[in-house]
Write a structure and sequence with these properties.
Elements lengths: L1 E6 L3 E9 L4 E10 L2 E6 L8 E9 L2 E9 L2
Antiparallel strand pairs: 1-4, 2-3, 2-5, 5-6
Amino acid sequence: AYLDFQLEERTSLNIQLMDTNGKLLQQRRLANLNPGNYQEQFNVNELPTGLYFVRLQAAGKQSVIKLQVQR
């Protein structure tokens, strides 16, 4: 699965992939990213079909995106 996102300022970014119970499945910390568009790939091959959440945290802001895994 690919995650596209845009940063408006230089910052570090924390990306978390969680199940519907809030259990942390994967986490990435990307440091010192410049403003611009980015794409990050998550390996979801080991995950069962279902709904997941991706939380992005940067510069005191947070966004949550739904991710549907289907087989």
